[in-house]
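Folded chain entry —
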Amino acid sequence: MGGHNHLRLLDCSKSLQHTSSKDSSYIYRLHTRARLSRGQKGLRQDLPPPLLHHLHQHYETMSLHEANHTNFWNGTPWFIHECTIELDSNYRRIALFLIYLFIFMVGLLENALVIWVNWRRRHSANGVLFCIINMSLSDLMVIVIQPFFMMEVTMNEVWLWGRFLCKVTHLIYKINFYSSTFFLAFMTMERYLSLTRPSSPALFPVAGRRRWLLCGGLWVFSFFMALIENVHVDLLEWDEPGCYMMPEYNHIEWYVSVTFLCSIFQFVLPTTVIVTCNVLIARAVQTAPDVQGRRDVWLVHVYSLVFVMCWLPYHLVLLLLNIDDLNPLILSCNAFEVLYFSFSVVQSLTLFHCIANPILYNFLSKSFRNNLINTVVTYIPRERAVDQPNSLNGGGTDLGKQRKLSDASTSQSDVAS
């Protein structure tokens, strides 16, 4: 994702000014990051001029003692050739393009259907359905900008759409990064409270300003968290234009702080809420005396499992890269190359939540499928609509039972029935 797939371009030229010439491994890692994981070895002449200048200056100013204790091969310091692993970036580009294309096609259809079916009930819907609508809006926003990512990957990270779209697409991506998770966590809490404390006030009540204040607060907070990173995203034109994140000062301190906040607010806290509430929901459903669909309790655990599978690999790689930033001597060059090579892949896999959420929280719900059929029927000519069976909603005798069991159902959107 250009500035999105490898938003870890260090401010190498300034970092090198404060780097000891003895720390060859750290110099190498700065150089590796500056290469943006394009699979090149040695000093590339297409690096930004400030980095090239400082790298050459670093080698030229090494003391005689340091030079005598540094192994050279064909006149090049050993740490430039420290990496022995060869990773094919062409295969990665093909995989990323196919992932983005699949997410765009399937996610666009799914989230458009979810919004289309539920939008008319947005003012009267309960808190669960209200969160689902906002979550789908967030996912649809990031899906719409997928073509930019696909083209950028195809052109080997070259950005051709100017500075404005560079910053806007990254901002949209990061807003979804937080807002989708926030609304999912609040939806899970709302579901848990509706099951265990039906008399207590809802987090997103149907009437009053509380719903809109809380909803607006989540969007504003997501925008603020995204803006912390987005202020350093810009279009940088060297040999080729690219959309990069490049803080001007104190990159290591800034990056560690931002990734720490990201891990806490986007993963640790939401995961704690989602997993805990889903476990309690499963227990409540199992002990409910009038629940017939206990075989579906496992779906609650699938909700937690899918969320963790989408986000855990990304945050693990991010944590390891963070550790490497704090102490470049811990990871070997090959280990760092693998981590940095895989970062864009695991980051793209996080977007599968845009496909998984509509399936888990909408299409598995019988009430949503009925609403989808009813919505489609309204667009069928009247002479054809009269031929549709009257049992689309499960029949009059079953409606009361469905309503009674909706609070015990494992499908999140069934609460909105």
